[in-house]
Amino acid sequence: MANDWWKDAVVYQIYPRSFQDTNGDGIGDLRGVIARLDYIKELGADVIWICPIYPSPNVDNGYDVTDHQAIMKSYGTMEDFHDLLTECRSRGLKLVMDFVLNHTSTEHPWFKEAEMNPNSKYRKYYFWRPGTADGPPTDWVSDYGQSVWQYEEHTGEYYLHMNAVKQADLNWENPEMRQSVYEMMRFWLDKGVDGLRIDQLHLLSKKEYLPPYEDYIARRADPKPFRPNGARIHDYLKEMTKEVFSKYDVMSVGEAGSVTPEEGLVYTGTDEHELNMIFHFQHMELDQKPGQEHWDVKPLELSDLKKVLTDWQKKLEHQGWNTLYWCNHDQPRIVSRFGDEGKYRKASAKMLAALLYFMKGTPYIYQGEELGMTNAPFDRIEDYQDIQTVNMYHKRVFEMGRDREEVMASIMAKSRDHARTPMQWDGSRNAGFTEGEPWLKVNPNYKTINAAEAENDPDSVLNFYKKLIRLRKQYADVIKGSYTLLLPDDPQLFVYERQANGQKLISISNVSKEEAAFYWPDGSEPGSAKLLLSNYENAGSADSCITFRPYETRVYLLA
Ligand code: NOJ
Question: Whose CA is nearest to atom 5 of ligand 1?
């Protein structure tokens, strides 16, 4: 890889629907993104990743695309998009698009034709199977709580959808389909886009989901025979690199569920020429009861978090590259999840940032994370719009007869809508997001948690993020250096060292509401330690024992 600029970049993720509305329709738009570019620049980010902005019926808020080479009307026009690119350029910001290539909307012209004409070449762009005497070809169930097969009357066959019913899976076995996708990718990169985020790459190779007919009858009893990251995924990615990425100086990042660090190394190891980096989910699954769904919440064990983050740091230390993220549009707000959204909201939001972003990798900051935005307190299902949330509610309450309050408790902890409430810009009506009716309710705490307020408060989470990003740049070499976890068994403190070129950096975080005693490791000279960052006032000198206050974090530089 000639130019690894993405290794030094900080990425800011925008969910355009909820970012900034400028025409009063209650939905964010591209002009709104342009209006807020200075805010992103001032934060210190270098790259923007924007979630899908293509035409879509919005069953899954843009992840159900009908045309990969156009702009959704409610977001604006292609001209607006070009202006966005130009405005990014003029500020030295790069722009990464989100690309959904595991599936299309069933409203996509390819699918429409496939549905109507079994002899069309587009039929082979998707998966079609005859049913069995009992109905669908297999009894596989998706994360959206339904069969992954949908009967289509016109041809009397079922099509595969690993996500919602209206998201039909593309057949990556078909080389012609793959070429069509590469063409669409090049369309955006030729415009000067700086990279692509690939949605659900772990689902692209599905050979193993679709065994021969007799086999899948035999496997009907198997409740979850899905094998993500299937056999041919690496061939597809190598081909994609050859056909697309190798022709541009761009970054690539893939969403990869169910991957281990070993597989992460194959995806991102530079010798393999697949992707620059991937999003794994191992740290996001630590508050989920083993073997159950992400709705089934359990408290986080700090030792699990240390193990997972350390594993990824160590296994990708010499080859490959990590993403560093707590939040995105699919995850609840981290401060409500692993921190404290009440008394210690600011302290814990800052602590979580310092804990993660001094690791090696590319940080991804999701809109509002830099303000310490929290989960929404919505306790009525009517206030949620996310299809996964609504489907789960109906399934658990109406089909399974589960207790409504218990189901609402899961939703209040884990719904994707917590990340999607409108961005909180200021204390005016609708948090300055829209002058109309927002498509999703604003979190009522916007009067106190908002960007305008944070900009004026030297102690805000926002100003802490700014400082942290400046430090990351200043100490880029040591942050790319070797990683050592200290105190692996301490139940409250997460402590690690980074080392390179005779410099050492130590990040110490109290991930608890109680005080915690920290003793400097043998051989260190606390007296010479320089405090680079902390989230409490009067952080004090580097005595041999420091009492860390609730959610306190400190980062020191040791000569
Ligand atoms: C992952 C995306 O991040 C999520 O929002 C979407 O629902 C699924 N992929 C399906 O495209």
Answer: 330
Which tokens sit at 308?
A: 């997972």
Task: Please tell me the distance from the alpha carbon of residue 186 to that of residue 405, in angstroms, as a whole number.
Answer: 48
If asked whether residues 127 and 190 sit together in one domain, one would say no
For residue 321, the CA-to-ligand 1 centroid distance in Å is: 22
Q: 490-538 pLDDT, tens per residue?
A: 999 999 999 999 999 999 999 999 999 999 988 777 788 999 999 999 7
List the domain range (segments joined by +) for residue 147.
Answer: 109-167
Pocket of ligand 1 contains residue 430 by CB under 6 Å: no
pTM, rounded to two decimals: 0.97
* Residues with Cβ within 8 Å of residue 135, at least 6 apart in sequence: 151
- Tell me how far the alpha carbon of residue 52 lies from the centroid of ligand 1, in angstroms: 10
Q: Residue 225 phi/psi, 5° resolution?
A: -85, 15
Question: Which stretches of 316-360 are DSSP H helices?
Answer: 334-337, 345-357
416 CA closest ligand 1 atom index: 5
Taking Cα atoms as reference points, which of 199, 201, 176, 198 lies closest to residue 189?
198
Pocket mutation for ligand 1, best pick of 102, 163, 417 (most atoms within 8 Å of C-beta):
163
d(CA 529, CA 43): 27
Query: Does the Cβ of 497 fall within 6 Å of ligand 1?
Result: no
- Per the CB < 8 A criterion, the answer to whether 515 and 536 are in contact is no
CA distance 482 to 336: 31
Strands (E), 100-244: 103-105, 128-129, 149-152, 157-160, 167-169, 195-198
Please tell me the predicted confidence (pLDDT) of residue 207: 67
Q: How confident is the model at residue 208 (pLDDT cuts 50, 70, 90)?
A: low
Q: Are residues 86 and 179 in the same domain?
A: yes
Residue nearest atom 2 of ligand 1, based on CA coordinates? 199
pLDDT in tens, 286-311: 999 998 889 999 999 999 999 999 99
Number of domains composing the chain: 3
Alpha-carbon radius of gyration of the chain: 24
Q: Which of 394, 207, 413 is nearest to 294 (CA)?
A: 413
Q: Does residue 154 sit in the same domain as residue 199?
A: no
Nearest to 430 by CA among 27, 14, 15, 16: 27
255 catalytic per annotation: yes
